[in-house]
Amino acid sequence: MSGPLLLPTWPELAARPQITEPMRRYLEQIACVLRPGSVNNTDQALRAFAGFLVETAPEVTSIAQVTRRHVEDYKPWLAKRPGQNKARVTTATLAHRLGTLRMFFVRIDEWGWDEAPLRVPMFPGDLPRQDHPLPKALDDAAAAKLLRTAANDKRLLVRVTVEVLLRTGLRVSEFTALPADAVVQIGAAPWLHVPVGKLREDRYLPLHPHLVQLIDDYRAAHVPADHPLLLPGENGRPLDRHTVTRFLNKAGAAAGLPHIHPHQLRHTLATQAINRGMSLEAIAAMLGHRSMDMTLRYAKIANRTVADEYFAVTDQVDALYAQAEPLPADTIGPKMARLRREHHRLLGNGHCTRPAELDCAFEAICETCTFFQTSIEFRPTLQAQHDDAEAKGQHHRANLFDKLLTGLTEDEAS
Hints:
The chain has helices spanning about 15-30, 35-55, 70-80, 90-110, 140-150, 155-170, 170-175, 210-220, 240-255, 260-275, 280-285, 290-300, 305-320, 330-340, 380-390, 395-414; strands at about 185, 190-195, 205, 345, 350, 370-375. By secondary structure, the chain is mainly α. The chain folds into four domains: about 10-125, DNA polymerase, domain 1, CATH 1.10.150; about 140-300, hpI Integrase, Chain A (Orthogonal Bundle), CATH 1.10.443; about 305-335, no CATH class; about 345-414, no CATH class. The strands form two sheets. The chain has a three-stranded antiparallel sheet with strand order 1-2-3, with no helix packed on it. Strands 4-5-6 form a three-stranded antiparallel sheet, with no helix packed on it. Helix 1 runs antiparallel to helix 2 (about 35-55), helix 6 (about 155-170) packs across helix 9 and helix 13 crosses helix 14. It is elongated, with a radius of gyration of 29 Å.
């Protein structure tokens, strides 16, 4: 046996060629259509089962002789195997090994191989059910702390890493592989082109002008013009997930936060987006989800409709507990919902429509917040802010006020 899961090698299994040859031929077939990593995982699953047969079932000399009893004996045998850095294999590994083995039997039966057993000896119920915990995201206050702390880091690369991951939801592998020409201009807005990667598909993400400036500043200071990557390390070498994790936790520790995994920032953006009304379809496109299954998990974390309805009846519930005379449910419910939706807080150049129950940790980015609204009465203020930004050479800020003023003009015209 060899490897962390004590798997036998194919040469060690050579004494049972009628078991190993169909398995190896199967691997050759799936290698034509699957990625190398998937083929390697299948290889491990088949070697584990072959090792079990060699060790415990000397009467089995070919795959065709495998019966249901062998499968039932194999499951507890596999469950007791040592895992990588663990006393036992995890439930996820167990489910993957058994699921891959079942697919082997299903396919060779469908393909009509002579080596296939008379009946497929495995069923879907042989796979253990796995836990599906919800994605762990940073709450708004923690995300704001992380962003503010990273902005004050002396190392610009730490700031760029934290802000790009938190504002784009990129996977670490996508972030570290971004090519030098990933930032593109489409119409009047900057976009980030995420090339073909994990899911063999590319996509475009709208890019906050603030991020464009950050990336430009870092590249001007540390990246040669001919470097193939958008954001390599200061030494020119590509970043890896371990380096990225260290950057995040450097900023996180300074902000007083516990350990942060890079994928948490992806979950954080998705949770923030769905909690502020972004559609599931748009979130799936932003994150590059191939199916809606993963995106739907965020709906369990932050359902805006549930929150709105809950706050709409809060006063009724409070009145019930206080033994006050409650108003009729058919009148107070819709009225409270309407009043809360119409709740506006006046800003210097518009209104904030964030519900009063939600605290705001962002004190200086109102114009880019999804709860911000403005109207024609604030045109002089917006124009003054635009002119001030232009005078100070703050072009991205000036562009923001340009868009707000243009929106007012379009509203007037309509």
